[in-house]
Amino acid sequence: MIYLQKRKRFLKRFVVFIILSSTLCVFVFILNLLFSRFSWNLDLYHHPLRLIFFAAFAATLFYKPFDYFVLVLFRHVFFRKKMARLQALKNASKSLIHTLDLKELSNIMVNTVSEIMQQRIAVLVLWDHVRKIFWAPSSCGLAISALPKIHFEEKDAMIRFLKDSRGLVEREKCLREFSWPEVYEISKGFELLGAQAVISIFCEDDWMGFLSLSGKKGGASFSSDEARVIEDFAEAAGFALRGALHVDELKQMNEKLKDLQARLLQTTKLAAIEQLAAGIAHEIHNPLTIISGKAQILLLKKNKQLDDKTLDQTLKTIVKQTKRAADITRKLLMFSEPKSSGKDVIEFESVVDDTLALISYQTTLDEITIRKSISKNIPPFMGEINEIREVFLNLILNAVQAVEKKGMIYIQIRYLERDGFIEIKIQDTGKGIPAETIPRLFNPFFSTREGGLGLGLFITQQIVHRYQGSIHVESEPGQGTVVLIHLPEKSSSWGGDPVPAMPQEIRVES
Amino acid sequence: MTKMLVVDDEIEICDFLKTFFEERNYKVFTALTGETAMRLVDQENPAIVLLDIKMPGLDGLEVLKRIKTFHPETKVIMVTAIETRDKIDEANRLGADNYITKPLSLEYLETDVKDKLESLVR
User: Can you give the C-alpha Rg of chain B in angstroms?
Assistant: First the structure.
């Protein structure tokens, strides 16, 4: 291979020499002609010093353009195909940085290199700083199922060597630098990956892993041009990978946060239901008591004469009370429903009514009057019904707790056409909130109630913000509190995850 | 005829208890609120009261307290849906004679009422 490369270099020098010397001859000839035309008695041929002077002058003036010309000639005429490939790899490395998805980036890297450099096998192996393991996000030519078997450890000779090597490392050259037993270990590493060459991927001084290549057909070595382009590619890949790894980390954290938030939502939901439990137990036990009581009276009367009227009334009561118990359990179940998958058209009136049904027993006991005013002109609002129910339940429960006994809760929903907002106003005549407490209301785990979780308003605010809405609390201690929510008529938060889609363009010329 | 007062904010419950005990020769008064209950206790001086806890206004425990203060000889059976432990303890502390949870077994309720009345006669 080295012999081959030498021959190429020789050929190149030879052509440069021919072109240069012939140009020089022509140049000297023209000069001589000029001198003789103006009959200056200068015999260039007989003054070697002058000849040398002119030759030097010509060389300094014309060497660079000629060298460039020859280079271009070689690249675009003799080795056109190869240059196009290298150019494609260069272009590809430039566009790597735009790919933020780790999986996609790894696939692009491996596929691009293997396709452009005509590699049978290419494997990207990355070092996971957190879990302290090596893993292969993408490979080509090696079954992905074989990848978990690719087992490296930090202390392996090959890894130690790669961490210190910048640039493309070819198997033969690398093995020459080591002695037994490292040679054995390193060659085994190469074999595992089906590799003839390996290149470390760095981002600045941070070693991130390596890319292994199966080498050229027939075991030929990479030319210096090829090696340089691969190295440039690896450098660009390092930066791109770091970006993608960060994005990946953020994505994972985002997932964790989402999960946590879902659990928080569930906790607040449970806490709310716990508060409702006593009222709901009554709402179910009372109809059951009535049903069982009426039935027992009928049973005890079975030996005596029964008149149709009593029987009819009893049965009607039983049917009515059964429906009552079923209604309350159905409404309670609405709150424990899993997250609905899609968008629902929110009917604010029925959401309010369902919520009020759940707390009706409590409000009757506490002598709280509830007034509601819901405009008819509210435009269709898309959202997740459970989230909206959660908002109303939290706010109405808060109002009930604020009022304690004897008071009023006023619920108003209207459409502010000019601003494109749906306004939800929940007002109570409760004890109010001191001004210094208001800014802390939406903090998680902030509660003024003993044993309160302090998540209700926090979750409510999160939900409202998800719809790009706003929530405000105004309060006058001793007078009551007003909670005001503005929801944009068309909230654009709906329609999926905010993952930016980056355009991808890699041109491979051949 | 033994006088009985049924206190429950649920009219249907008052109704069937009234029917049941009237057939067993009791004179039954019903009250839907704590306030009415207190008035009837003062007016009619029933021997036994079946008392719900959760009611708007004056609640069952408050009524129990007043009955036991002003009419200590009156027997009071608490008849309620599931309650928290401290509510039950509170009722016992205030001198409730028994505590029965809904839904009711009318036969058990009748036996219990008879029991309490017999202890009163003795």
Answer: 13
Q: Does B84 touch chain A (CB under 8 A)?
A: yes
Report the complex ipTM. 0.87
Enter the tokens of residue B69. 């203060």
Is the pTM higher than 0.80? The answer reads no
Kindly determine whether residue A286 and residue B54, on different chains, have CB atoms separated by under 8 Å. no
DSSP-derived letter for residue A220 is P
Does A347-494 carry CATH code 3.40.630.30?
no
Distance from B58 to chain A by nearest Cα, in Å? 9
pLDDT (0 to 100) of residue A290: 92
Q: Domains, chain B, ranges and CATH? A: 2-112 (3.40.50.2300)
**Cis status of the peptide bond prior to A181, with omega within 30 of 0:** yes
**Stretch A93-106: mean pLDDT:** 85
- Tell me which residue of A459, A464, A471, A461 sits closest to A491, measured CA to CA: A464
- For the cut 60, the answer to whether the pLDDT of residue A326 exceeds it is yes
Chain centroid offset of residue A416 CA: 36
Tokens representing A301? 């009367």
Q: Which residues of A264-273 are buried (b: 16+ CB within 10 A; e: fewer)?
A: bbeebbebbe
**What architecture does CATH give domain A98-252?**
2-Layer Sandwich (3.30)
- Report the alpha-carbon distance of residue A494 to residue A467 in Å, rounded: 8
* CB–CB contact B106 A296 (8 Å): yes
Q: Where in chain A is the domain with CATH 3.30.450.40?
A: 98-252
